[in-house]
Amino acid sequence: MTENGKPKLAMYWAASCGGCEISVLNIHEHILTVDEIFDIAFFPCIADFKVHHVESYPDGYIDVCLWNGAIRNSEGEHMAHLLRQKSKVMVAYGSCAYEGCIPALSNLTSKEATFNTVYIDNPTIDNPEGIIPLTSVNVPEGELTLPEFYHTVKSLDQVIDVDYYLPGCPPEPPQIWAVLQVIVAGLLEGAPLPPKGSVVGVTNVAVCEECKLKKGEKEISRFYRPYEIVPEPDVCLLEQGIVCMGPATNGGCGALCPQVGIGCRGCYGPLPGVEDQGAKMLSAIASVIGAGEVGMEERELEQRIQAVVDTIPDPAGTFYRFSMAHSLLRRAKVNGSNGKGEAK
Questions:
Q1: Is 80 exceeded by the pLDDT of residue 313?
Q2: What is the pLDDT of residues 197-237, one digit of tens each?
């Protein structure tokens, strides 16, 4: 702590959209309390901090670090190790840090294919020489460097030791404030902290338990993309053929998306004891598909079931939108990969 006895707070933004940074501001008037309680030790999104400032801190100087974003490149990995060394409490803040989230969907392809799409085979790019970024290039002024772009996106805990997880895309303001209160009480008043490794800000029951939409007996003959159907109000979206990850997702968000006719996307992560959120949802989907009749030939039954499944246009992106890095799949085996999910 500083001379005035205030604990020090850090927040870092790695491979993510930046919404987690904004979510901290969404705690509204409590942001003034955060400013009153904490000294900001590192928060480059809102203040002019440099890496050398963090490097100069003694180990454990930062009391709480909120890390948002997956590990996409060597800079992210370096900062993760650095901030872990300098922080007493490391929080994987948001879905990208917790499970890889949208950035980790690139694990379905390769680094080379990603570069090809972004820099070469792209109608908006004028790059006839096929130039791609290099980690090092010499110019008259000296050597210019860029971080190494990794083959595999990882969650934060696949790189460093993490104390707590706060899921959400982004986390909801009530959970953010509640978690900060618990940590502050532990730091300043000696109150017990949650067990290390806890997923905080969740209810440990499915989103469906928080959802107020009416639920009946499900039998789905096809699925719809959001633009293809206007859902009936007050009726379970999954029963209407709208993919909703509620059965496989930890609650704590208040089921905000289903309440406005948008299926849960799964950003609060898997329920306790569930190793693979996508597989859990696939199991739930399989149990409610209504296709075929008693006595039907097995081949025809398979065809009808497949026809229902085919109305889900992007199964991997649907069921693993937030959890690819933490899933049993982790990444696809593609050319240039050893299939072991190595970072580089």
A1: yes
A2: 999 989 999 999 999 999 988 788 899 998 899 999 999 99
Q: 26-38: b or e for each residue (b if 16 or more CB lie within 10 Å)?
A: ebeebeeebeebb
One domain for residues 248 and 169: no
Q: What are phi and psi of 186, to 5 degrees?
A: -70, -40
Question: Any idea what the Cα angle at residue 27 is, between residues 21 and 32, rounded to 5°?
Answer: 100
The DSSP code for 191 is: P
8 A C-beta contact, residue 156 and residue 162: yes
CB 200 within 8 A of CB 236: no
Instruction: Indicate if 159 and 88 belong to the same structural domain.
Output: yes
Task: Find the radius of gyration of the CA atoms of the chain.
Answer: 23
Residue 339 has pLDDT above 50, yes or no: no
200 lies in a domain? no
Q: How confident is the model at residue 1 (pLDDT cuts 50, 70, 90)?
A: low
164, 184, 167: which is closest to 175 by C-alpha?
A: 167
For helices 30-37 and 173-189, the axis angle rounded to 10 degrees is 20
Note whether residue 339 is domain-resident. no
For the chain, the distance separating the N- and C-terminal CA atoms, rounded to the nearest angstrom, is 37
